[in-house]
Write a structure and sequence with these properties.
The protein has 532 residues and is of the alpha+beta class. It is 31% helix and 21% strand. It has helices at residues 10-20, 24-38, 105-117, 168-182, 222-231, 264-278, 305-323, 330-337, 345-360, 455-479, 495-502, 514-525; strands spanning 42-47, 64-65, 68-74, 80-86, 121-127, 140-143, 154-158, 186-187, 194-198, 205-211, 214-219, 237-242, 245-246, 249-253, 259-262, 366-368, 411-418, 429-436, 439-447, 488-491, 529-531. The strands form five sheets. Strands 8-9-10-11-5-12 form a six-stranded antiparallel sheet, with helices on both faces. Strands 19-18-17-20-21 form a five-stranded mixed sheet. Strands 1-7-6-2 form a four-stranded mixed sheet, with no helix packed on it. A hairpin with a 2-residue loop joins strand 10 and strand 11. Helix 7 runs antiparallel to helix 8 (330-337). The longest helix is centred in the C-terminal third of the chain and has 25 residues, at 455-479.
Length: 532
């Protein structure tokens, strides 16, 4: 991990320290355990007394015995980390939801774009030992191991929500919820882990996006909030400052001041993992996959368990790269993911080829350009739909939508379909890309659920998908208090589909396309989208 060997347990950590002539892993363990002590995670009930069959005779009543273990990691800046984790898998499943919240990556991109649009400062911050800030109601205890040194062999009862306990995520989420409410923020109804509040003069919103214990802050004065978290709520804040790295993605400003997001550090990390996996660097490639390639027709030999594991690892690495903005490999990753349970040798070679493409393009990035696109040359599409089957329809605006503040945005969406993409099933594929102003915000690619016999049908299915996504995104923006400029601009490359979709008097000739046909046309009639 980042050039360091990571131990699997405490004993191996000490051995690595000894062989390397340093004490980094031991120091990491001691730091973690000192924090465990400072946060009063356990209540010490004294040394365990054992009876027959090695049963703990002085165990606290009503408490279940579990285990803890150390998890080791190296951060992107070279810091060695150790985390004490509880064996929550040994405890009964609770009936309530137990998860801590994570903001959607789409929501994160929206906040980044809105920050630059409305001249907000972007800061990142990490809440240290976040779960330990919350109390647990699970009745559990452990017998301390050698890593606890002088407490080895003692009965330690859980008092705080240690990582690994099934309810710890929920307990932390509840505590952070109370803190954000105290600071005057409200959770968005579209994405409950995006919090917002009006700025001091009521002209725009400030936002905080939460990914468990990682904060992305878009405010006029982020330092003010950080100081409150430290002083008023006594939270341990780490890595706070202008946004540079968040969830595996690097952030920096172009010479012209444009915000740039690039997962280059993450790509370099998985390229290093590739070399460790195969003993060589990937062969450079100009394309993720060859043109007109059809992996579903591959009849090479099936690979063994070791290659299957490597295949799954690579697919997982690609999926996070796509999530972080590398949508240039989205279609290929979705395509190759289909074979992950039983890949063939040819599939493995193709997935390795994508690494070759990443090695050549690891500098690729998303630029958050906030200028509105110029669509002044597009023809007017304001037709009278009142006498159509849709009647006098309008976009349904949620009654509880957030009051719009700040600068407006233009939403554009591009769609395409590839007929007969899968030569085994005959299905087409859909690809959709969403922009706010001139910034890509969301991306999608998937094999279509039904077989289409003509480009017209596959393109209409793609248009339906894009329309529904556009309506969902417009709802999200409204709940975030973002003013939207008129309708969404939707662009396709099939003139027949565009004409059929935009003219009120057009007639459907293929009944099996009816649902997609009417979904798109009703959205156009309701003045939700324009289609070009």
């Amino acid at each position: 991990m980042f050039g360091y060997r990571v131990p699997r347990n405490y004993t191996e950590a000490l051995q690595l320290d000894k062989s390397n002539g340093y004490s980094r892993w031991y120091d990491a363990v001691q730091l973690e355990l000192s924090q465990i002590k400072d946060y009063e995670v356990f209540r010490d009930k004294g040394e365990a007394i054992y009876g027959k069959n090695k049963q703990v005779v002085n165990a606290p009543d009503g408490h279940q015995k579990i285990r803890v273990h150390l998890v080791f990691a190296v951060k992107h800046d070279g810091r060695h980390k150790a985390r004490l984790v509880a064996g929550g898998h040994l405890t009964p499943d609770p009936v309530e939801s137990i998860y801590s919240g994570v903001v959607s990556i789409r929501g994160l991109c929206i906040i980044l774009m809105l920050a630059k649009l409305n001249d907000l400062e972007l800061w990142g911050a990490d809440i240290g030992n976040a779960y330990l800030e919350a109390f647990t109601d699970e009745k559990l205890y452990i017998i301390a191991g050698p890593e606890f040194e002088e407490l080895e062999g003692h009965i330690l009862v859980f008092h705080k929500a240690l990582y690994g306990l099934k309810s710890s995520g929920l307990r932390w989420s509840e505590k952070l919820h109370d803190i954000m409410k105290d600071l005057g923020f409200l959770p968005s109804k579209a994405d409950p882990y995006i919090w917002y509040r009006e700025n001091k003069d009521g002209t725009k919103y400030e936002y905080v996006a939460i990914y468990v214990d990682d904060l992305l802050i878009a405010m006029e004065n982020p330092k003010e909030m950080i100081d409150q978290l430290k002083k008023k709520f006594k939270l341990k804040i780490k890595g706070d400052g202008p946004l540079e790295y968040h969830l595996g993605c690097d952030y920096y400003l172009d010479p012209d001041g444009t915000l740039v997001a690039s997962p280059r550090k993450y790509v370099s990390k998985i390229l290093e993992a590739y070399k460790n996996m195969f003993g060589e660097d990937p062969k450079s490639s100009k394309l993720p996959l060859d043109k007109n390639d059809h992996p579903e027709l591959d009849n090479s030999e099936l690979v063994g368990p070791d290659q299957i594991q490597k295949y799954m690892t690579m697919i997982g690495q690609y999926q996070w790269a796509v999530t972080l903005g590398r949508f240039d490999i989205l279609s290929q990753v979705v395509y190759m993911s289909r074979f992950r349970l039983a890949p063939r040798a040819g599939h493995v070679a193709r997935v390795k080829k994508i690494f070759g493409y990443l090695s050549k393009t690891k500098h690729y990035a998303i630029r958050f350009r906030t200028d509105e696109p110029d669509y002044s040359n597009l023809p007017d599409q304001d037709y009278d739909w009142c006498r159509s089957v849709y009647g006098d329809v309008h976009e349904e605006i949620p009654e509880d939508a957030t009051k719009p503040l700040g600068k407006p945005v233009v939403h554009s969406v591009y769609l395409d379909a590839n007929l007969f993409h899968d030569m085994v099933t005959g299905r087409a594929s859909t690809a959709v890309l969403h922009f706010l102003n001139m910034t890509p915000i969301d991306w999608f690619s998937k094999r279509q659920a039904t077989v289409e016999t003509a480009t017209y049908g596959s393109e209409f299915v793609a248009a339906k998908t894009a329309t529904e996504q556009a309506m969902d995104l417009r709802g999200t923006l409204r709940y975030l208090g973002v003013p939207i400029v008129k309708r969404t601009y939707m662009f396709g490359d099939n003139k027949s589909v565009v004409t059929s979709g935009t003219l009120p008097h057009s007639i459907l000739n293929k009944r099996h396309n009816a649902l997609a046909y009417h979904r798109v046309r009703e959205a156009i009639a309701a003045k939700i989208i324009w289609f070009y």
